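Appendix B: complex inputs.
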Amino acid sequence: MNFEYAAAPESRSVVKIDPEYGHFINGKWVNGSAHFNTINPATEEVLSRIALGTAADVDAAVKAARNAFDKSWSKLSGRERGKYLFRIARIMQERAREFAVLETLDNGKPIRESRDVDVPLSAAHFFYHAGWADKLEYAGVETTTAPHGVVGQIIPWNFPLLMLAWKVAPALATGNTVVLKPAETTSLTALLFAQVCQQAGLPDGVVNIVTGDGSTGSAIVNHPGIDKIAFTGSTEVGKLIARAVAPTNKSLTLELGGKGANIVFGDAAIDETVEGIVNGIFFNQGHVCCAGSRLILQESIADEVLEKLKRRMDKIRVGDPLDKNTDLGAINSAEQLAKIRELTAAGEAEGAGRWSANCALPENGFWFAPTIFTGVTQAHRIAREEIFGPVLSVLTFRTPAEAIEKANNTPFGLSAGIWSEKGSNILWATQQLRAGVIWANTFNKFDPASPFGGYKESGWGREGGRHGLSAYLKGSAK
Amino acid sequence: MSGRLEVMKTYKLYINGAFPRTESGRSFEITSNKGEFLANACLASRKDLRDAVVAARTAQPGWAKATAFNRGQIMYRIAEMLEGRSDQFAQEISLQTGTSAKESLQEVSDSVDLLVWYAGWSDKLPSLAGSTNPVSGPFYNFTVPEALGVVGAIATIDKPLLGFVAAVAPILVSGNTAVALASSTAPLSAISFAEVVATSDLPHGVLNILSGQQSELAPWFASHMDIDGLDISGLPIDQHGAIKEAGVENLKRISTFTELNEPGRILAFMEAKTVWHPIGN
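Resulting structure:
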């Protein structure tokens, strides 16, 4: 029997997109001097024109942020700061549908995910941090309560609004002011967030949003008026930023790339595990720094898992991101699609076995079918490099020690997964894995109360939870 | 006169529980503050540093796996051994720096007390720095601090013993292993400290001690891909930028400290690991 799903598209009438946007500086909209198009990656339709931030725009934003820090924000009590954050959280909840549709249009992710994950988690992040604002003296061993001052924040395109929330909420709760640059391809929800700040009556200059590309980001990193930089993105760019910041007094936190190992032991509950593998690599088109992109299967169950995984992958619904049935949306950009194609071609050329789900892909837009590679060795590029797409590399192991060795054999250390029904085995593997977030019998779970961040070349510092706060407090230990 | 000729000590490196000379065959003269010859210390090379890192890396999993109670006891044992040799260390400090016998003895006592202070943190800091996290869903979620791995330390050049102890004790107590560079001008106390460590049940390779020139070795500490963290408190501030830049290649965690008794010295070289597991039946 074959069940077909009737299309169930979410209406885009809830969002109003202006034909052109400026920067949000000192509580006002400022026209940009040059613009670039932002498109819907599912259709290649131009959605709007986004201002390309110059060094002068960044300078104006930093001055506004400094002025707001000196004159208003640092003079407020923690309780009052917190109340602004509560307001922001509430307004985001009120406008949740608008945010979800806009995010899906601009990013290409399924509406099911933007509606159920990105937007509610973003609002929750503000709500969580609002409560910290007047309790900073309880935030940990050796934390101070002093903010840095002006914080420069540069965020990626995979979770545009959520990454904004991860950056802005703790910065404001701890009393910093912000200059934020959204990713080049996904500025729209950040610009809608600027409207939320206005509706919340946030003092002018506390949050400034300058849109643009890498040159805008570089102007933020190198601006002498900024006290702290927070960046989420690739390890390559993270290192460039770290080098630029090294000779300065700026603080720096980094959330970078990953090549997460998802280890399945022979005693795992297979059906749950298959769901977890799918969630681990195909959530958000695999545009996830903590994705479980290396599946490490115990040989005894490898054939069974792969057979069930392929059967499950054939049921993944790929297509219109606004359709509420859709599981896998569009690849965010032509550039990212080219990178995925290049790495998967390398996987084939190096001898791994490629298998893709049997699904029809839309004609326009950027698409990539869910794909797995079997027979992958640790030397293959697809086992070492972050693909950042719906592509899973499968390796096998015989002994638990071999699984750990393979899992840790990477310069990254962001996430890892463990599938086993034996508690002592799970806790043992948890201790051995060199990664900042371990999901055992689950994957890709996020929460404002749960610290997130990587070991090794996956970054510096944590975001979320008590541990994430210290990054925004001067001189605080973790 | 039936004078007896003193048996002088050969000051060597301390790598993997042994006392080798530098592979480079080089030495540098250590004099008292009055300019009298005290010793020819080993002028450690980049290769010595690499050997020390191999020893530290090999020893790290075992040291981290030791119970916190056990690590605390061994750290306390180091304090015991140092206490018993207070006079020797005080004399050596006075010879190198010219401080009075009383001041030098005070530096030794302070070092012993600091070791005791850090020893006690081994089984307490994880409770304070970890957390259980109330996530919105049927999951048990907790965060634990873990040792970073192999950490380098460039000790301050003044306070030859206390500065060295303040650098290495907080690195070791959490389960890291260390490669430490002694004061470039007064390295003898740190080298003699190796003799204390060697009789304290600290597993071989957990602490490795080099003597040499900061200017030569600090850049190699910074760029070494198998050193995870680095305390550069002992380096002049005008060199911090270049060292931090060199450390970017493996995103080394690089820190400086001012206080001696500071839990932050321990936490700077730990990583927070967060674990999720579903709740259900």
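The longest strand of chain B covers residues 139-147.
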